[in-house]
Write a structure and sequence with these properties.
By secondary structure, this protein is α+β, with helices and mostly antiparallel strands. The protein contains 19 helices and 12 strands. It folds into 5 domains: 136 residues; 212 residues, no CATH class; 106 residues, Helix Hairpins (Orthogonal Bundle), CATH 1.10.287.70; 89 residues, EF-hand (Recoverin, domain 1, Orthogonal Bundle); 67 residues, no CATH class. Strands 1, 2, 5, 6, 7 and 8 form a 6-stranded antiparallel beta sheet that branches. It is flat and about 130 Å long. It is found in: Cell projection, Cilium membrane.
């Protein structure tokens, strides 16, 4: 067991180095500036209102969309003057907030649905001439319309424009559609937008419109990839959302960046080391290897790390190519959406990997008694919790369906089944809007709320806590009655004790040699030196080694200079050694135990003397059986007292020894 603990401790030290390395490379490329960059862009493009008061988040019609696009959007994209109306000498380049360069040109894209993609009921065929279904990629309109010519009026596939799908609030949209690239100046972009408005670019078939552009801040070496989305559902109206990804795509510029590069190389070596280690363990343990949760965790960490390493290389190469193309053709749209998306996934992978890496620390501290209690509690009550979870989620999902059907048409937090699930978790935590439920259904709303809180919060959750509490009490009671196993703290204490014991012995040897030097006068011969130290209990090889070290001329005699050098070195070593008395507390306990034993021994002797006197007195009375009237018990006095004396004599001898 001790060997196993020491091996685990050694593995822990290696793993801590790996953990520090992964923390450095994860946090090294993260900055609080990311948040402020995102906030600045959000305030400019999302929270800025037009002269008529239309903000991006308040867009509810197609007219509001064009009001925003021709107002706050153009004003935010093109900065041509300072705050005192003095022109900025940047040519045709725009620097948003004077610091963030607009990369390439912005792009507007829409996806349309075919007319008659749904069927109108027979009763309304005469009044309703067209039917545009909810979005479905199989029902996309791919026909040219409007001015016919130009990218804004011609359909382009996802492959042609190298687009990517988008997960909106209503559904997931493809990367195809009709697009219009704006210009590098505000005036030309305004003309293009007016042309789109005049020729009815957005119509009943439009299901979503995207506005994409990217900026770069050289001060903090950050890219900001912005996508503004306005969905036009089949119900009418408009739903706006946005996606702002602030990422670091160019990695290695400063000295700190190259330090992180070094950490990444060390990380790759660690991953290679752990891959070899896991392969060897897999060869030894075969399929039983997968029975350990820690081995599964190791595989997850290694797989995530490999994917992150591959993407890191891919991202570096791809960004260089994209920036080179953008510098050659500044009039094109800079599509950083794909890279920004995968950079975000890369950051997410690193975050999850770091989380699992910290969780793995529990593997190495499982020898701690507290951790043993927690892990044993969770392991033992796992089956009970699983059975409870089945019962809990049956009730929970039943209430979720009830809430969706009762309030889904009026309350946003119950508008979808998934939202109902999260809303009910929020109710458990005390975060809910009871008034909205009551307004949606004045009769069933209160009944739903009261019964849900009673059964789920007061009954089921308390049952869950009771399962864990009972199991924890059982585990704690069992561990308290078991013999303590060797723990990490014991190993550290043992190493500490051994180290200082050696220091104490070494100090005593130094003192003996100093006494031998003081006992001599003038020159000291080896024979005298040896005899003095032999009397103090030192071995011949120790004496010979100490003497020959300072006997420079090898004449078996220490002259005054050699003795002086020996004294100086021995004094330095003696002073450098720390005083150590590891057995003082133990000695005190032994003394206390001896005093207690002496008291017990004296009492036993007194009892034996009294029993001896009683035996003599009883021997003078009638021999044979003695009848005890009060208890109606017969016994033989000789047998009784002889056994008692023998037992006390044995006990007395044991305590005395």
């Amino acid at each position: 067991l001790e060997l196993f603990v020491r091996t685990t401790l050694r593995e822990l030290l290696v793993y801590l180095v790996f953990l520090v390395d992964i923390c450095l490379l994860t946090y090294g490329m993260t900055s609080s500036s990311t948040y402020y960059y995102t906030k600045a862009m959000t305030d400019l493009f999302v929270n800025t209102a037009s002269q008529s008061g239309v903000k991006f988040q308040s867009i509810s019609t197609m007219a509001d969309f064009w009001t925003y696009a021709q107002g706050p959007l153009l004003d935010g994209l093109y900065w041509t003057k300072w705050y005192n109306n003095q022109s900025m000498d940047n040519g045709d380049r725009s620097f948003i907030y004077y610091e963030n360069m607009l990369l390439g040109v912005p792009r507007m894209r829409q996806i349309k649905i075919l007319n008659n993609s749904c069927k109108v009921h027979n009763d309304f065929e005469d009044e309703i001439t067209g039917c545009f279904d909810v979005y479905n990629d199989k029902k996309e309109d791919d026909l040219s319309f409007g001015l016919i010519n130009g990218s804004a009026w011609t359909y382009h596939t996802e492959k042609e424009i190298k687009g990517s799908s988008h997960w909106g609030l209503l559904t997931t949209y493809s990367g195809s559609g009709y697009y219009q690239d704006l210009s590098r100046t505000k005036e030309e972009s305004a003309i293009k937008l007016k042309e789109l408005v005049d020729n009815l670019w957005l119509d009943r078939g439009t299901r979503v419109a995207f506005i994409d552009f990217s900026t770069y801040n050289a001060n903090i070496n950050m890219f900001c990839v912005i996508r503004l989305v306005v969905e036009f559902p089949a119900t009418g109206g408009a739903i706006s959302s946005y996606q702002i990804r602030t990422v670091r795509l160019i990695r290695y510029i400063t000295t700190w960046d190259y330090f992180i590069l070094g950490c990444e190389m060390v990380f790759c070596l660690f991953i290679l080391y752990y891959i070899v280690e896991e392969i060897l363990e897999l060869r030894i343990h075969k399929f039983s290897y997968f029975k350990s949760i820690w081995n599964i965790l190791d595989i997850i960490v290694i797989m995530l790390a490999i994917v992150a390493i591959v993407f890191n290389i891919f991202r570096t190469v791809k960004v260089d190519k994209l920036l080179g193309k953008l510098l050659e053709h500044p009039q094109i749209y800079a599509d950083f959406e794909f890279l920004a998306f995968w950079q975000t996934q890369y950051n997410n992978m690193n975050a999850v990997n770091l989380f699992f890496a910290w969780i793995k620390v529990f593997k190495y501290i499982s020898f701690n008694k507290t951790m043993t209690q927690l892990s044993s509690t969770l392991g033992r009550c796992a089956k009970d919790i699983l059975g409870f979870a089945i019962m809990f989620f049956i009730v929970f999902f039943a209430y979720a369906q009830l809430g969706y059907l009762l309030f889904g048409t009026e309350v946003e937090s119950f508008s979808t089944f998934v939202k109902c699930i999260f809303t009910q978790f929020r109710i458990i935590l005390g975060d809910f809007d009871y008034d909205a439920i009551d307004r949606a259904n004045r009769v069933l709303g209160p009944i739903y709320f009261v019964t849900y809180v009673f059964f789920v919060f007061f009954v089921l959750l308390n049952m869950f806590l009771a399962i864990i509490n009972d199991t924890y009490s059982e585990v704690k009671e069992e561990l308290s009655s078991q013999k303590d196993e060797l723990q990490f703290t014991d190993i550290i204490k043992q190493s500490y004790m051994k180290t200082f014991t050696k220091l104490k012995l070494k100090k005593e040897k130094i003192s003996d040699v100093q006494k031998a030097l003081r006992s001599g006068s003038g020159e000291i011969e080896f024979r005298d030196f040896r005899e003095t130290l032999k009397e103090m209990g030192h071995a011949d090889h120790e004496i010979s080694a100490a003497f020959s070290r300072f006997d420079r001329d090898g004449n078996q005699i220490l002259d005054e200079d050699e003795q002086e050098r020996m004294k100086i070195e021995l004094e330095e070593k003696r002073v450098s050694e720390l005083p150590f008395s590891p057995h003082e507390s133990l000695t005190k306990q032994v003394v206390q135990l001896e005093s207690s034993v002496d008291g017990i021994t004296s009492r036993i002797d007194l009892i034996m003397e009294k029993l001896g006197l009683q035996q003599k007195a009883k021997g003078n009375q009638t021999a044979g059986k003695l009848t005890v009237t009060n208890h109606d018990v017969r016994m033989e006095p000789g047998l009784r007292y002889s056994k008692t004396l023998n037992a006390l004599n044995a006990l007395s001898f044991k305590w005395k020894t």
